[in-house]
């Protein structure tokens, strides 16, 4: 599912819902825009969700950094670097997700911490020593991301008939030349969601 729906996109560019002539092409633009946004923000799972198994290498005994994470189904560790994940951790008792207020703010968790009273420790330096089965991604598509998708998709759609990548006119308030990977307004909306690199190993 795209970050912006086909109906939302059509409404934004002035195409009525009853006009289905270009629906396939419009959806293709939305899908391409999602990929462009994911690449720009460096969000491995994008802003949707997926149930996956991922592996991490802990650099500290008390926590391990993760990719965008919504919830954990199973957490296991390979404590002696033999490739077997022999220790299963219990949520709440052995570990907690962090930042603690992430869900309240509509953001994903990006860290798993050992629970304060727990004697457990992550296997520091063991390559892929932490195995996480859970829901990765974002709890919901942020409003700013949806709006950026509509703006960017509109720019891509308009460029199909724009000579030399020029959109707009002086009569309409100015000219925008499509020389950037992202529309400037879309870029501003997405800036807070940029992540320089993923962490899955």
Spatial separation of the terminal alpha carbons: 27 Å
Helical run tally: 4
Uncertain spans: 169-175
Rounded mean pLDDT is 88
Question: What is the fold's blueprint, element by element?
Answer:
Blueprint (H helix, E strand, L loop, with lengths): L5 H7 L10 H19 L7 E8 L6 E15 L9 E3 L5 E4 L10 E6 L15 E8 L5 H17 L6 E4 L4 E4 L6 H7 L11
Antiparallel strand pairs: 1-6, 2-3, 2-5, 2-6, 4-5, 7-8
Structural overview:
The protein is α+β, with helices and mostly antiparallel strands and 201 residues long. It has four helices and eight strands, in the order H-H-E-E-E-E-E-E-H-E-E-H. Helix 2 (23-41) crosses helix 3. It is elongated.
Give a quick rundown of the structure:
This protein is an alpha+beta fold and 201 residues long. The protein has four helices and eight strands. The chain is elongated.
Features:
six-stranded antiparallel sheet; two-stranded antiparallel ribbon; 8 strands; 4 helices; 201 residues; alpha+beta; 25% helix
